[in-house]
Amino acid sequence: PGTKLPKVGTTIFTVMSQLAAEHGAVNLGQGFPDFPVPGRLVDALDGAMRGGHNQYAPMTGIPALRNAIATKSERVYGHRPDADAEITVTSGATEAIFNAIHAVVRAGDEVVVLDPCYDCYEPAIDLAGARAVHVPLDPATFAPDWQRVRDAITPRTRMLMINSPHNPSGAMLSARDMATLADILRETGVFLLSDEVYEHIVFDGARHESVLRHPELRERAFVVSSFGKTYHCTGWKVGYCIAPPALSAEFRKVHQYNVFCTFAPAQHAFAAMLDEAPGHYEQLGAFYQAKRDRFRTQLLGTRLQPLPVPGGYFQLVDYSAVSDLDDAAFCRWLTIEKGVAAIPLSPFYETPPQGQRLARLCFAKNEATLDAAIERLAKL
Ligand code: PMP
Ligand code: GLN
């Protein structure tokens, strides 16, 4: 039988982490923190497991967590989703993205994605029998060209996917972007999938323009986030989707028969964290901004040129002063020969821009890790 996903191989994140391990490289490739999760979260998880929360959770997520997410949304974005009808807890943002696509996208539909985009989008679209239509972001600023987005929308378009703060660039959509987007979608039946997993990692006093702030947009949107990014626990794979009742009902049909429910003890732990320690997510931007600023200062002592990082935990660097290799070859060379693993950008594109010489470095790391990487990068 022919493969259903001919374009899919092993993800670049796995490939680079394996290469880093084989060659003893400092791993700034795959995005994950190398520091511990909050002790309070571990205690809450331990308490949940010892307290007997080890059987199936309700399909949609435990009420305490859905209520805590609603409260957080109200505090941060001024909008309180209905915890019963509009919030579903999922096994990571990846599951939420998969469900949202499969809930509404049918065979023959088109889904507009903005390149570079995260690697799990297109395979989910392909499995739905639909087609991803790739619209490039500006290669210098990673801002959308809204006219091109407008032009990409056809009667077959079923969904548009956005991601802010953006992986891999860290670019953020502005209030003006959101107003333009609302204008573009107004007369269409296009659904919006907003990937906001880095929602709390924003810098320099900027405000994250969650779709939840925008009444018109949220009426047609699936808003997805992940506790993995917010609580330094990417391996726990717990996230959620907020969508209007009718969309949540369809979303839940997929979730129900995909996983049924998400890891129960962690749901109790995150509910406690959100309610009892809101300071954690409120201070996450400042926490990462200190890492970003220190790392960028260190990069000035190398021949890598750092691009601006408005949000998220990735630093893009232009390596054209160091090498003429294409990005995939450069990242392999950097890992094997120079001992620092990075992620090339080309796998995030359908058509990578000609001559682009950018690599992605993750700064969600201890100072010692970043220092060790800089020591090696300074020798390039
Ligand atoms: N979207 C983006 C933009 C991401 O960077 C990630 C995680 N790397 C995900 C979705 C998936 O999140 P999760 O690990 O919770 O499935
Ligand atoms: N989201 C992570 C990144 O961008 C990788 C997650 C994964 O390995 N699938 O690095």
Automatic annotation (TrEMBL):
GO terms for molecular function: kynurenine-oxoglutarate transaminase activity; pyridoxal phosphate binding. Its cofactor is pyridoxal 5'-phosphate. Keywords: Aminotransferase, Pyridoxal phosphate, Transferase. Gene3D superfamilies: Aspartate Aminotransferase, domain 1, Type I PLP-dependent aspartate aminotransferase-like (Major domain). One of its GO terms (cellular component) is cytoplasm. Transmembrane segments: none annotated. Belongs to the class-I pyridoxal-phosphate-dependent aminotransferase family. NCBIfam families: PRK09082.1. This is Pyridoxal phosphate-dependent aminotransferase.
